[in-house]
């Protein structure tokens, strides 16, 4: 093996590292940060006090990370579990103290045939393991969105309503 790249990712130890799609790397460090890297460039990151304001950052930190390509799963030293969108780090799921103590590892259930049974109709499933000797399954409900045809219909209705209101307010507008 040959070293191809070296850079300072965190102040202090790195708790966990995960490889993501498009040669991205996710790291969780003892400096209370979780970072997404492309080569040696920081793509985006989470700082504990920005992600969960009101909770002192010296008592908590990210402990475990996994990137499924679409989602980033995180476990903390307090036993909390979260799922974020991988490219924007928007939080979609959070369970405070899902475990009694440190989450040591998280893993996404594969979207293969056997994994479909665990997923059911959910968008993703994350397994978490902790020092409390428990393994828990976290299911991310499928996000609801409007169909494109409905969105276009609503926009057309808005345009017609605006024209009618302008016609009422200013007779002879058209």
UniProtKB/TrEMBL annotation:
SUPFAM superfamilies for the chain: WD40 repeat-like
An example Gene Ontology CC term for this record: endoplasmic reticulum membrane
Coiled-coil stretches noted in the UniProt entry, renumbered to this chain: none
Subcellular location: Endoplasmic reticulum membrane
InterPro entries assigned: Sec12-like, WD40/YVTN_repeat-like_dom_sf, WD40_repeat_dom_sf, WD40_rpt
Tree of life domain: Eukaryota
Chief subcellular location: endoplasmic reticulum
GO molecular-function terms, A-Z: guanyl-nucleotide exchange factor activity
GO biological process: endoplasmic reticulum to Golgi vesicle-mediated transport; protein transport; regulation of COPII vesicle coating
Keywords associated with the record: Endoplasmic reticulum, ER-Golgi transport, Membrane, Protein transport, Repeat, Transmembrane, Transmembrane helix, Transport, WD repeat
Keyword Transmembrane: yes
Xref: Gene3D superfamilies: YVTN repeat-like/Quinoprotein amine dehydrogenase
Methyltransferase is among the record's keywords: no
Protein name: PREB protein
Protein's organism: Oriolus oriolus
């Amino acid at each position: 093996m040959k070293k191809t790249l070296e850079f300072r990712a965190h102040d202090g130890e790195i708790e966990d590292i995960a490889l993501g799609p498009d040669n991205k790397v996710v790291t969780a460090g003892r400096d209370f940060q979780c970072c997404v890297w492309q080569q040696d460039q920081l793509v985006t990151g989470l700082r504990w006090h920005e992600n969960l304001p009101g909770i002192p950052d010296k008592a908590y930190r990210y402990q475990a990370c996994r990137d499924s390509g679409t989602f980033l799963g995180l476990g903390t030293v307090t036993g909390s579990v979260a799922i974020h969108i991988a490219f924007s780090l928007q939080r979609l799921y959070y369970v405070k103290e899902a475990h009694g103590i440190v989450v040591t590892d998280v893993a996404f259930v594969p979207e293969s045939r056997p994994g479909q049974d665990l997923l059911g109709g959910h968008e993703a499933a994350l397994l978490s393991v902790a020092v409390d000797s428990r393994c828990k399954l976290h299911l991310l409900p499928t996000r609801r969105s409007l169909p494109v045809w409905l969105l276009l219909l609503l926009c057309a209705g808005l345009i017609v309503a605006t024209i009618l209101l302008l016609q009422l307010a200013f007779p002879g507008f058209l």
